[in-house]
Design goal:
The chain has 285 residues and is mainly β. The protein is built from one helix and 26 strands.
Length: 285
């Protein structure tokens, strides 16, 4: 897409606009075939970007985070229907996979990620902005489901380290990240502790989606700040990448390197690409 049609983006020469005018984009993720997927929450749709073309698939509900399995199926949280659902790009069919836990409906699931054994971890913040009623679940590959954390103020984005041994989860309304060891064989989050205060706006917002780079740095979209904040392995903020638009919701690295870091921004409805060389230059000592 031509940046000339979006003057505010011209102030950021290292950033390319992939698509604009999206109704609350979230959850970027790359499929095994290299295509980029995201959601358009307020248009009840999934987005697929490939070879310069953007396609929409209407799935209903309120799709939020995305995780893609090894077969290329698109798993997404649907906060409106309180479910985790799966979309098959080949058949264009959608099915509900998870809708309850312990005999109760899921509490508005938000974001999700697969570990290396294809166990699925997902957050359920519900309405936990002012009370610690949010929780986190794991859906094991064998079909078992259980809570791995509870009593959180809006648990939101999450990411596994590149070796799969660490799980980080954002507690948005406390402006902090939790970090713990991940046992993929038993589905246990061990020794989880507050790890980093990311900062955030005075009002609603805070750390949202996130992605690890190959060096162990964590890139966190901090909603309400217009920044992607970079956290090193010691839990310290070492850089802040400014983006056009106030509300970054999530980010993902392109495995091929072509699109660098992809960012979804909900304030203006942008799907953005930050060049890999720019990221490396900012992080070099």
């Amino acid at each position: 897409m031509d940046n000339q049609n979006f003057p505010d983006i011209l102030k950021y020469p290292e950033i390319k606009l992939i698509a604009g005018d999206i109704q609350f984009p979230e959850g970027p993720a790359f499929a095994p075939d290299g295509s980029l997927w995201a959601v358009e929450l307020k248009a009840n749709s999934l987005l697929r970007y490939s070879n310069g073309l953007l396609d929409r698939y209407h799935v209903g509900g309120a799709p939020n985070g995305i995780a893609i399995d090894v077969k290329g199926n698109i798993w997404f949280c649907d906060s409106e229907n309180s479910a985790v659902r799966k979309f098959n790009p080949a058949t264009k069919e959608t099915e509900t996979v998870i809708s309850n836990i312990d005999g109760e409906p899921l509490n508005k699931p938000n974001d999700l990620a697969f570990d290396k054994l294809e166990n699925l971890v997902f957050t359920c913040p519900g309405e936990s902005k002012t009370e610690p009623s949010g929780y986190v679940c794991v859906f094991m590959k064998n079909g078992a489901i259980k809570k791995i954390a509870a009593e959180k103020y809006f648990p939101n984005g999450l990411a596994f380290s590149t070796d799969g041994k660490t799980l980080v989860i954002a507690e948005t309304y406390r402006h902090r990240l939790w970090k713990g060891e991940w046992n993929m064989h038993t589905g246990e989050w061990i020794n989880a502790q507050p790890w980093c205060d990311t900062g955030g706006p005075d009002g609603p917002g805070g750390p949202d989606g996130m992605a690890f780079d190959d060096y162990g740095n964590l890139f966190v979209a901090v909603y309400g700040t217009g920044e992607i904040r970079v956290i090193n392995t010691e839990g310290k903020i070492i850089h802040a990448i400014k983006i056009p638009g106030p509300n970054p919701t999530n980010c993902a690295f392109d495995p091929s390197g072509k699109l660098g870091l992809v960012v979804t921004e909900a304030g203006h409805g942008y799907l953005l690409s930050i060049a890999s060389n720019h990221l490396k230059n900012k992080l070099l000592p």
